Amino acid sequence: MRKCLFFIIVFLMFLSVNRGQAQDNTHNYGVKMGINYNKYRSSEIYYYYRAKRGLHISFFYAKNYDDFRIQPSVMFIQKVSTLEKYKEMKYSVYDHILSFIEIPFEFSYKVVDFKLLAVRVNFEPYIGYCLKAIKRDESKYEELSIGRNDKDALSPINAGLRIGLSFEISRFEPYFCYDIGLKDISPYDGKLTNNGASMGIAFHF
After folding, report:
1. Are 164 and 178 in contact (CB under 8 A)?
2. How far is CA 103 from the centre of its chain?
3. 12-63 pLDDT tens trace
4. I want to staple 142 with a disulfide (CB 3.0 to 4.6 A). Which of 135, 170, 199, 205 is the partner?
């Protein structure tokens, strides 16, 4: 898996370098890939959550207006959270592995522009749909039900806002952002949101 990602990154870098000069700067397309650390935030006092690493990849289209940019995209993202539960004198630890398809819509403004480096502030609201949810307990895997009633483990719809910085270096754009979950993804009475931090690199073709 790591070797495959390495060759994909090298290939994308090669494409971006060769096509960089010919591309119209008013618009372009590209791909993002990176890692994210997510965890639940809940009103339930008997639960404690820790962030774990997940992966994300997205394909985007960018439209540039001088220093301002809009960038819709389609993203696959895996959000993993460790749950430590202590209730009724019982203690258990397990992971939730959630796979989402998300539609982010990024608004970006260039705040610093040097000759070789530009710094951007990014605001990215998104809406997502949970494709699959898995509970991992040591070596055991159990698929969680996704639906809208109190018999299901999770609600399928997720929404939030990512806020962060990115650094344009030619056709490469490393980025860092914080993910604020705004949608309650629990079908129960208690509130449950998913929050996290992401980092990665975008390749503009």
Report:
1. yes
2. 10
3. 555 444 444 434 578 899 999 999 999 888 776 567 788 999 999 999 999 9
4. 135
Q: Which long-range contacts (CB under 8 A, 24 or more apart) does 5-12 make?
A: 5/33, 8/33, 9/33, 9/201, 12/203
Report the alpha-carbon distance of residue 96 to residue 61 in Å, rounded.
Answer: 31
The amino acid that residue 164 corresponds to is G
CA distance 167 to 202: 10
CA dist 60 → 4, 20, 75, 76, 116 (Å): 21, 16, 9, 12, 23
User: 11 by DSSP, 3-state: which?
Assistant: helix
Tens-place pLDDT, residues 114-172: 888 999 999 999 999 999 999 888 778 889 888 877 777 788 999 999 999 999 998 89
CB 101 within 8 A of CB 126: no
Task: Map residue 61 onto helix, strand or coil.
Answer: strand
3-state secondary structure of 6: helix
Q: Which helix (H) or strand (E) holds 145?
A: none
* Closest CA relative to residue 25, chosen from 135, 83, 110: 110
